[in-house]
Design goal:
GO terms for molecular function: ABC-type transporter activity. It comes from Leucobacter aridicollis. It is a multi-pass membrane protein. The chain crosses the membrane at residues 82-107, 143-170, 176-201, 213-230, 242-264, 276-299. The protein has 310 residues and is mainly α. 61% of the residues lie in helices and 2% in strands. A two-stranded antiparallel sheet has the order 1-2. A hairpin with a 5-residue loop joins strand 1 and strand 2. Residues 1-7 have low confidence and may be disordered.
């Protein structure tokens, strides 16, 4: 038996030649092993699709567990909210006189505001609500806010179907590629903005439980901070120009106005489409992505202390 000349050798006493043993890699040096927390941020959620699917299933299946109506509440609650705003704002205060087909205008915004409020609140509470799991094992903590927003989006889909059906009942609504693109852009903006807020306040809520209360107060004004129950024209006449411009690039406002353009404007005779709609949309996209980046950075900065603070 001969030794390969290319292998390192060492000479021992008596002239015997032996192959030098190669140093073994420690598990910590092996590329297959990664330290807990050494993730690729939100991209890591796609490395655990089974866990994400389980959390989504939990969020959707247990929401109405033990309820007689079950998923029917996904229709009843927004319907009650719609009728309340329609009667008070439309009938009592007379806003219907300024907006043609006010019920459809109102419904187009209400469904988005409901999704935005529910998803932001759920994502903020997602880390503290899974404290027992986080303290026992490691998994990408971003999975919890992502699954919370995903579950809220699943419950939003029936409301979107109702909005589409009502819009088609009102008049000559027709599908178009531009309408589909506007709906996708509106939902993408709102998803990015909501997830960014969820990551930011979800992380802060672990160390400072005031974050949950801040979000609750903030969401109380959500329906008033976007043109849901009034037209953007009404605000432009009573606030400074720069306030109106900031208001119009608010990601929630951009998403609501895109929904108005798709589900309401094609049916009415004189729709109130905002000036510089494309510019506002680009600004909303930038703010939504900036919020998502900020939320992810803060989340990664604070997640090392999650188990300790929980």
């Amino acid at each position: 038996m001969t030794l390969d000349d290319t292998q390192p050798v060492r000479v021992v006493q008596g002239g015997e030649r032996r192959a030098a043993s190669r140093p073994k890699l420690s598990p910590l040096d092996d590329a297959r092993y990664r330290a807990p927390g050494d993730s690729r941020w939100l991209l890591d959620t796609f490395r655990y699709p089974h866990l994400l699917a389980m959390l989504l299933k939990k969020g959707t299946s247990t929401r109405y567990y033990g309820s007689v109506m079950g998923w029917g509440w996904s229709y009843v609650k927004p319907a009650m909210q719609f009728f309340m705003y329609f009667f008070i704002m439309g009938v009592v205060l007379g806003l219907t006189r300024g907006l043609e087909l006010f019920p459809l205008y109102l419904l187009s915004g209400i469904v988005l505001i409901n999704f935005y409020s529910e998803a932001t609140r759920a994502a903020t509470n997602s880390i503290t609500g899974n404290a027992a799991l986080i303290k026992k094992i490691y998994l990408p903590r971003e999975l919890f806010p992502v699954s919370s927003v995903g579950s809220a989006f699943i419950h939003f889909l029936p409301q979107l179907v109702v909005l589409l059906a009502v819009s088609m009942m009102y008049g000559n609504f027709a599908f178009s590629w531009l309408a589909i693109v506007k709906v996708i852009v509106a939902l993408a903006i709102l998803l990015a903005f909501t997830l960014g807020l969820g990551l930011l306040f979800g992380a802060l809520n672990v160390a400072y439980r005031d974050a949950k209360n801040i979000i609750d107060v903030f969401l109380m004004f959500a329906v008033w901070m976007s043109p849901v129950i009034y037209s953007h024209e009404m605000l432009r006449n009573v606030v400074p120009a720069w306030v109106y411009q900031v208001y119009m690039v608010n990601p929630v406002t951009v998403a609501v106005e895109l929904f108005h353009e798709v589900f309401w404007a094609p049916i009415v005779s004189e729709p109130q489409i905002p000036d510089f709609a494309l510019t506002n949309t680009i600004g909303g996209v930038g703010i939504a992505l900036g919020t998502l980046l900020l939320g992810q950075v803060v989340f990664r900065k604070l997640e090392g202390d999650f188990a300790q603070n929980l």
